[in-house]
From TrEMBL:
The keyword Transport applies. Residues 1-17 form the signal peptide. It comes from Bordetella genomosp. 10. This is Branched-chain amino acid ABC transporter substrate-binding protein. The keyword Signal applies. Residues 32-385 form the Leucine-binding protein domain. Belongs to the leucine-binding protein family. Pfam families: Peripla_BP_6.
Length: 406
């Protein structure tokens, strides 16, 4: 009996000592969940990737501040950023490094240019890594992949939505409906997808004749010959599809220099980046429109203000707002999956039905079998008084549209 008491006293002493250790009795914090962003952080497209990173960082912070992933015991998100570089070859290599160097990565977003996204998703699909993207190309979700999710309306659909609205605006503002159009585009995948949709039937459907059709490889060294063709044919509209800021700047300046007065309608955000207004006169930009997958809009004022105060950004582009929204989609999928597993998260993505989308134009947070976000539409932005503002859809517009020259 005395021996048993001695043993009991010894065990009690060990327990008491253990209870006095730092952190004793605390519940172990769940392991963080790695989520990825693969985008250009170097080269000529670095600016876009850096803005995507801002949106991702804001999203991760907000999710974590609001309790993390509740289905995983409040696990925090951990952002992994991978530089895709500035070419399709570099993007593919970066994706291969990403899936091998970060085996715990369960979902990712990126890769900015559609041509980069097409290369990256060949790799992520084999790795069964779910991938969200704002890239526009119709090819992205036409390959039968199971792990790609496109939050923006595809390029062809964007043109179909935007064109009638722009022509109606022209009719109301100028008193006549445009009949001829020029197309000046770079040869990136998203731009070419839009142009293909226009030329394959949308122009004819909307009563437009194509009188100038020019394609260039970015970055553009000289815009003289392109603008001379536009000047000689005198179209009613110029559809302008650059993806590099320097190209947008060069062409607008050349139009001004040669007195080419044609309303400019763009597709994509190169025409609306903050750097544009730093180097191009607001007077040249005023009235220029662009159809984009997403943009800071009505209802997102607090986020836009954070971009201004935390990152010194003058406005919130599609790269920031879409990537921010992607982080919340990741959270919803992880909550549904109940585990940090790539395949489980991919299945959960296909099963999402989260209702109206707070961070994307139109539709809901739900994906069809091909990976399109259901009901996705677009945003039309316009330069007004030195700022590109949302003018469509009306429910999200922060200003009324104007017609160039009116």
């Amino acid at each position: 009996m005395q021996k048993k008491s001695a043993v009991f006293s010894f065990m009690a002493g060990v327990a008491l000592a253990a209870s006095l250790l730092p952190g004793a009795g605390a519940v172990a914090e769940p392991a963080p969940v790695s989520v990825g962003l693969i985008a250009p952080m170097s080269g000529i497209y670095a600016r876009y990737g850096q803005v995507m990173r801002m949106g991702a960082e804001m999203g991760v912070k907000d999710v974590n501040d609001q309790g993390g992933i509740k289905a995983l015991g409040g696990a925090k998100l951990k952002l992994v950023v991978v530089d895709s570089g500035d070419s399709t070859e570099k993007a593919k290599s970066a994706a291969e490094r990403m899936v091998s160097d970060y085996p715990d990565l369960v979902v990712a977003t990126g890769a900015y240019l559609s041509s980069f996204t097409l290369a990256v998703t060949e790799v992520t699909e084999r790795a069964k890594l779910p991938m969200l993207t704002l890239s526009y190309s119709d090819l992205i979700t036409s390959r039968g992949f199971k792990y790609i999710f496109q939050t923006s309306a595809p390029a062809g659909k964007q043109a179909d939505i935007a064109l009638p609205s722009i022509l109606e605006l022209a009719q109301k503002a100028s008193g006549k409906r445009p009949k001829t159009v020029a197309i000046v585009t770079d040869n990136t995948a998203a731009s070419l997808s839009t142009v293909k949709a226009l030329k394959d039937g949308l122009l004819k459907k909307n009563g437009l004749e194509l009188v100038v059709d020019e394609t260039f490889t970015p970055p553009l060294a000289d815009a003289s010959s392109l603008i001379q063709r536009v000047r000689s044919r005198r179209p009613d509209l110029l559809f302008f599809l650059p993806t590099v800021i320097s190209d947008a700047k060069l062409i607008l300046e050349k139009m001004n220099e040669t007195n080419v007065k044609v309303p400019v309608i763009s597709f994509g955000i190169a025409i609306a980046e903050p750097e544009v207004v730093n180097t191009v006169s607001p007077a040249l930009l005023n009235g220029v429109m662009s159809a984009v997958g997403n943009w800071g809009a009505k209802g997102q004022e607090a986020l836009i203000q954070r971009m201004k105060t935390e990152y010194k950004e003058p406005w919130m582009t599609q790269n920031a707002i879409s990537t921010y929204g992607d982080i919340w989609i990741m959270k919803a999928a992880l909550e549904r999956a109940g585990k940090a597993d790539r395949e489980a998260v991919g299945q959960a993505m296909h099963a999402l039905d989260e209702g109206p989308s707070p961070y994307f134009p139109g539709g809901v947070i739900k994906f069809d079998e091909a990976g399109h976000r259901v009901g996705a539409t677009l945003t039309v932005i316009q330069w007004q008084n030195g700022v590109p503002v949302t003018v469509f859809p009306e429910a999200q517009a922060v200003a009324k549209p104007i017609w160039p020259g009116k």
